[in-house]
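Session log. Operator J.P. requested a structure for one protein chain; no other inputs attached. Running the standard single-chain path with token output.
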Amino acid sequence: MKEFDAQLLRLIQDSVPLVPEPWERIADCLGCTAAAVLQRIDHLRAEGIIREISGIFDVVALGYSQTLIALPLPPEKLDSAGQIVALHPGVSHCYSRRDEQYNLWFTLAVSPESTLSLEETARQLATQAGSDGCLLLPSL
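Structure written below.
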């Protein structure tokens, strides 16, 4: 990876400035133009290195319930289950792990206005994903 790309990724991973021209501010840090920053971001996105640039909110401060969940799945169901889980609007991270029992992990946040509890939402997602169980781990 080019050093410029590595520096750009570090900057946007840390935080995109909340200013009218964020790409200008990032460009200033990198010693280039905003056009160069946007061109590299487009390129890195096309290569699949950047999936998205988005805000991450403190869901607990907003009144949401949150947990880390692990599901046991047969390896052949892992990709399709991950796609199902990742579609839920309360899931911010979803990834597989090399574990003999629990191999699909994701974070789940549930709105205080939801008619389903965090636990019930997790159970429904596990069922939709084809898992016969789920492990809820507290978020600290």
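Operator note: The two ends are 35 Å apart (CA to CA).
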